[in-house]
Design a protein that fits this description.
The chain is mainly alpha-helical. About 70% of the residues lie in helices and about 0% in strands. The termini are far apart.
Length: about 240
């Protein structure tokens, strides 16, 4: 059960580093590499589950009042990355789905609306708006509804819950994991589970810098770098 996992900052940093490495290889394979590699594609499927786990855990421990700052950063760097992402994908008309930062933004926004304290008479309206936001915007982002929903389930699993709630959450997690495999057309994403467990064990008592801003700048930066490489190769 996720509530029993003790996740250190070093383990979170390690998981993010592994995730962006998998993402870099996947984007190189998709946008730059002359001959497409099924192995690199499979490696790239690890990125989203790792990002989802880290974000879900952080949302469960960060005060709700700080979530708008996180949402603002995701929106800013998602916008910065968009033209590079679009051009790599085939041109400025390649705008759909929106890049992964918007997937994480949608997840964070949904969690914020589900957890922010509001006056009692507005609670139902705000919570329903969170659901409608996820349903309406899910079709616009990478991994559609599955990615943001996975973040929400992991976030909730790290919070106190009754026995029945925990059963339902675990069933939801299993269903969403299988849907992710369907979207990916392989089961490589499931390898993120043992990878997370091994990483948490290896880095539980170690120290690593948090590198908070590095991860935000890395996303548009690696897309720009890949775009330059593609142009140098004549792509």
């Amino acid at each position: 059960m996720l509530t029993r996992l003790k996740v250190s900052n070093a383990a979170l940093t390690a998981l993010k580093l592994i995730g962006i490495t998998a993402m870099l290889l996947d984007h190189y394979n998709s946008f730059v590499k002359p001959e497409y590699s099924a192995i690199l594609y499979a490696v790239g499927r690890l990125a989203l589950p790792l990002f989802v786990f880290v974000l879900g855990y952080n949302l469960a421990r960060v005060p709700v009042a700080k979530l708008p700052q996180l949402m603002g950063r995701l929106l800013l760097f998602g916008i910065i990355a968009t033209p590079f992402y679009n051009v790599l994908g085939g041109g400025l008309s390649y705008w759909w789905p929106l890049n992964i930062l918007f997937t994480l933004l949608l997840a964070t926004s949904t969690v914020y609306l589900l957890s922010v304290p509001v006056a009692k008479r507005y609670v139902i309206a705000v919570r329903w708006f969170a659901v409608l936001l996820l349903v309406g915007a899910g079709s616009l982002v990478d991994y559609f509804w599955v990615g943001p929903a996975l973040v929400g389930v992991i976030w909730r699993l790290f919070l106190p819950a009754s026995g029945l709630q925990r059963i339902l959450l675990n069933v939801s997690l299993l269903v969403l994991a299988l849907l992710l495999c369907v979207l990916n057309e392989n089961f490589a994403a499931l390898l993120a589970i043992p990878l997370c467990l091994v990483t948490l064990g290896c880095f539980q008592d170690r120290q690593l810098p948090r590198l908070k801003w590095f991860f935000y700048w890395f996303y548009p930066g690696h897309l720009l770098g890949l775009l330059l490489i593609k142009k140098l190769l004549g792509g």
